[in-house]
Specification:
The protein is an all-alpha fold. The protein has 2 helices and no strands. The two termini are 23 Å apart.
Amino acid sequence: MSDFVPKQYKKDPITIRVDFEKLETIDRCAAQYHLSRSEFINQCIDYALDHLPDLKKGCHP
């Protein structure tokens, strides 16, 4: 599995609900990489989608 490499870029804003403990972990990790919470979550989602075997079979546009 390749490494997660955080980087900065823009996306459209959305709202999600996240468990408080997970949010604390997200905030700590985002701060470690000098990213906003939103930037960090967006990159985590991209990384997860890129590494799910079922999505590699044709779910990507």
